[in-house]
Design brief:
single chain, 129 residues, alpha+beta, Alpha-Beta Plaits, four-stranded antiparallel β-sheet, two-stranded antiparallel ribbon, 5 helices, 6 strands, 29% helix, flat, Dimeric_a/b-barrel, YCII-related domain-containing protein, YCII
């Protein structure tokens, strides 16, 4: 099963931390080893490191016309900072991997199952059934 581990950031949660402490939250000196272990085990599918929300654009189609805005206007200081896609036998293993992400010490990491959208998965999305 594939799972998406969503890592959120809240700059307020990082206030007061030293540069070294912040570096440790993203994995510190052990980051390359952690990633290597997950890849060697065949569990890590993808790492997504997102730019700041100020670099984002949004699009919404209104009356058939795409309306593009420069960025989302967040009502919270928290934003999606990145994600991992893992393929593991169970949600328990996905939760173990999430708990091992150093950032879990200051922010919650959301673990969400990914549905496959092969033909059978697409058929399940069909609102006509």
């Amino acid at each position: 099963m594939k799972f998406l581990l969503l890592i959120h950031n809240n700059p307020e949660a990082l206030e007061g931390l030293t540069a070294e402490q912040r570096r440790a939250l993203i994995g510190g000196d052990d980051l390359v080893d952690r990633i290597g272990r997950l890849r060697s085990a065949g569990e890590l599918v993808q790492i997504l490191a997102l730019e700041l929300p100020s670099e984002s654009k949004t699009v919404q189609t209104v009356a058939g016309t795409p309306v593009i805005s420069d960025r989302p206007f967040l009502e919270t200081k928290e934003f999606l900072a990145g994600a991992l896609v893992v393929e593991v036998p169970s949600i328990d293993r996905a939760l173990e991997i999430a708990a091992d992400v150093p950032y879990a010490a200051v922010q919650r990491i959301e673990v969400r199952p990914i549905r496959d959208l092969d033909e059978a998965g697409l058929a399940q999305l069909d609102p006509g059934e």
